[in-house]
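Task: complex structure prediction.
Instruction: return structure tokens for all chains below.
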Amino acid sequence: MYMAEQGFGEDMVHHPKDPDGLHLCALSGDETIGALAAYVYEPGAPELTHLELPKVDGLSVQIGKRLEEAPYRGALISEQLGTSMMLQISESLRPVRFFLTVRGTHRRLIDRYARRGFVRHADIGSGADAVTVMTIEGAAAMEKLYVEYRALGKRSMHNGTRIAVPSLVPFLADTDREHLLAGDLLGAENIYLDPLPRKEELPRLAAQSRLMAAEQRPRLMATAFPPPPASLLDVGTGPGDALAAVAKEPPFSGYRIRGVEPSPDLRATARSAFPQLDVRRGTAYATGEPDASHDVVMASFLFIHLRSPDLALREMWRVLRPGGLLYVVDVNDDTFTGPDEIRRMVEMHDHYYPGDRTILTDLPRRAGEFGFELENHFATTVRNTGDSEPVFGQDEIVLRLREGWGLLAFMRSQETTAKLFEEAQKHYFRTQCELSLGIETQVYRKPAAQPDEQLQHLEKCSASRAAPAES
Ligand SMILES: C[S@@+](CC[C@H](N)C(=O)[O-])C[C@H]1O[C@@H](n2cnc3c(N)ncnc32)[C@H](O)[C@@H]1O
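Output:
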């Protein structure tokens, strides 16, 4: 009925590419009330040649089969599904091109996509079959589109109109399309390090690690970590200060501790400063660790710097043993309080930053998609109203004004924020205004194997034991 209502012809419903498409439908009871599809093409796919699209080095994604505009029920729902689909594809597949075909008469749609940055590429066919092909490609245009969709997604999350759709990552992996996921591509970029001057960042990180060691002590003691002998993997170890401090805490006595870090520089720094630490090459998307090899995975100030939290969650789930813990510590800019002059800078920084300094707001939902259960959630507010050394209270750290600015000082390094940064900094020291920012600790458990899974595992083991040895 929905298809008829939309005017979708037989050729569109039974399209030869349909089985390969990614389809998102919203249902009310048994009835479809919104639907959206996307098609992923690898380089050289005949469909691209047919539409006269030049070769590109990476995935091309077609949005919809043939876009139509009609005032129909579920238009807003379909728009929400579209935003979510675009975001998920951008984060986890990292295509180099989006394109769409619009039926020739739908001028308003053509204009709408042109405003989003799509370029009219070709007009194909004639009469009732005429379509306009629109594309968007190139790193800068793709990034701009992603940032715009992300802002739309956040707006709907904050005003409560978002429709949370299932993650594409497990869906693609479970349907033999894992090769489309962009773990390697994502692992090759480091959005945290790229814009930062190391000379300033490393001392800032060392100071942050000292603060966090004190803040974390009661959090670690309040968490039910698996007893030793056990193993902890720290993802994104950086220069090692934070991991070295954690390794000394009582819950980890008797643990085997290992870190993975993608930056060769930071690995070298960590190894020379803390020779006792085992720090290896690896990323959040590909740690290089075997399946179910760790009891605890730690991600400290990592998730805010990841473009695809879902791909990282999947990798963390893979390396954790059933019953193991994912321990996440990060800042959350959604908790910022302070004057508008500074809020504007924070919002501008976060709008353009390719990572997401508010990801902790959405992480429980995302982690739930992979089966993680949120077991503990601690929140600490960092304030700038102190007049001495840092003071640690119940769920609170109080810093002096100057150190308080250190919470945001790195925002200077982003070009788009530079001007607002200067104004915000002047305002801060002139008015000595109060501000605060939250740091959250979220502890997730990978549930212990269910009885029937255990049975399957035992059956597999006994079958392999019973099998004759290969000669
Ligand atoms: C803010 S530092 C945090 C370092 C340390 N975990 C701590 O708590 O102080 C972020 C770290 O994540 C690393 N990183 C960036 N992208 C990563 C990725 N895709 N996978 C793993 N680590 C990554 C950076 O190189 C850097 O060492």
